[in-house]
């Protein structure tokens, strides 16, 4: 199978990744990535460092972000690529979403405490190098450390998803706002890992996915992730068809979070299906 040398989705310690921006870019370069986007959740603080190291190592760097969105009853992630990280509208929007995370963390800890698991807030914050982005992954790492589950994936299943004791509903950004911030900052909006929204217990059905893609496109969304760490090969084909149907470009990224924790390591992603128009097609890089 052909492999592409673009990886347009990954995380550093600025959100819930395990590697610093420098370590992440170094690993990407070692693994043959030629173009890398860092897309931390709701924060752009790692981009400067990552861009500098990328320049030193001779790889192309793309400024990115992954914005948490609430659409109807669903949490979605919208990746922004080629954003200006200093754009005031984007900066202010991201600051606003980050500001809700501490209270949500407190509620999650209270909820876990009611199920007999105490001390989680402090434990989780120890894993959050950037406390503004405290999130479920940090809780999961602490709960593994404390011996409640064998790995991060099991913690999510048992505690951190809808219907489980540590899950707290949260209002993230509006879909329209997130797209506007990204476009306002000169970037393009990409629907991240769509297959994650159609799988699982509280998943959206296919008609709802179509409504989402319709709305996303109408509001100025330009691309969807077709190849991503959490998609199976049949999902590459499925979302390639959606991309064609809705006239969207296709993106690919590992969604790497760190050694031992992710479905896929950085880079060496399978090629996009033939019919896809890659998101980088018009970038001239
Ligand atoms: P948050 O923004 O705090 O709700 O955390 C979302 C993050 O949790 C995602 O970006 C993933 O890194 C992680 N995550 C979500 N679901 C799972 C899962 N089932 N297994 C492992 N990690 C997950
Ligand atoms: Mn994450
Ligand atoms: Mn995501
Ligand atoms: Mn991600």
List keywords for this structure.
single chain; 285 residues; TIM Barrel; DNA polymerase, domain 1; two-stranded antiparallel sheet; 10 helices; globular; binds manganese (II) ion
Describe this structure in words.
The chain has helices spanning 21-30, 47-57, 88-99, 101-114, 120-127, 136-145, 152-160, 175-184, 206-218, 233-246, and strands at 3-4, 6-7, 35-38, 60-71, 74-81, 173-174, 188-191, 223-228, 249-253, 269-270. The radius of gyration is 18 Å and the shape is globular. The two termini are 23 Å apart. Strands 2, 3, 4, 5, 6, 7, 8 and 9 form an eight-stranded mixed sheet that branches. Strands 1-10 form a two-stranded antiparallel sheet. The chain has two domains: 3-87 and 175-282, TIM Barrel (Alpha-Beta Barrel), CATH 3.20.20; 95-160, DNA polymerase, domain 1 (Orthogonal Bundle), CATH 1.10.150. The model has no long low-confidence stretch (mean pLDDT 96). With 285 residues, it is of the alpha/beta class. Helix 6 (136-145) crosses helix 7 (152-160). 39% of the residues lie in helices and 16% in strands.
